[in-house]
Amino acid sequence: MKQIPESFRKNGYDFEIVKRTEKVVILRQLNALGGVVAWEVHKVRLNPAAAVQYCQPDGTYKIIKYLKSEILASNQEFGRYAWSYNTQEAAMNKYNELTGNPERFTPNDQTEEYYKQ
After folding, report:
1. Would the pTM count as exceeding 0.90?
2. What whole-number distance in Å separates Cα of residue 103 and Cα of residue 87?
3. What does the domain layout of the chain look like in residue ranges?
4. Distance CA 91, CA 27 (A)
5. How many C-beta atoms lie closer than 10 Å to residue 41's C-beta?
6. 32-88, pLDDT tens digit by residue?
7. What value does the mean pLDDT take over residues 26-31?
8. Residue spans of alpha helices (H) in the chain
9. Regarding beta strands 7-10 and 50-55, do their DSSP bridges make them parallel or antiparallel, or are they unpaired?
10. Rounded CA gap, 5 and 99, in Å?
11. Who contacts 2 (Cβ-Cβ below 8 Å, separation ≥6)?
12. How many angstroms separate the CA atoms of 40 and 94, rounded?
C-alpha cells in the first residue's frame, strides 16, 4: 500500500508529518523560509486499488494499475476530513479528539517527547 510521504510539497507549501496513527495525521505547513504557517489535522482515508483502461491516440488500449493508497483531504474537503489551525495546541487537541485520547495538549519544554509517543 502506498502511504502518505513523510514530507511533500502542495499548493506552494512544504508539509511534514508531525504525528500520526493509522487513521489520523498532523501535518506542519511550512513557507519557503521554513517558518510554520499552520498545522493541519487530517483523517487518513484509503483509495482502493484499481485498473483503468483507456484508448491512446493511436487507437491502441492501455491499462494503468493503481495501488491501494492513503489519501489526504482535498482543499474542498476541509471541515469534513481535515482542519487547519494556527497553533500547535489547537491541532493537537483536534488530533486527540479524533484518536479518542481525552488528554488536553498544552505545549511545554517536553513537547518534542510528546510527538514521539
Report:
1. no
2. 17
3. 7-116
4. 9
5. 26
6. 999 999 999 999 999 999 999 989 999 999 999 989 999 999 999 999 999 999 999
7. 96
8. 88-99, 111-116
9. unpaired
10. 20
11. 67, 68, 69, 70
12. 10
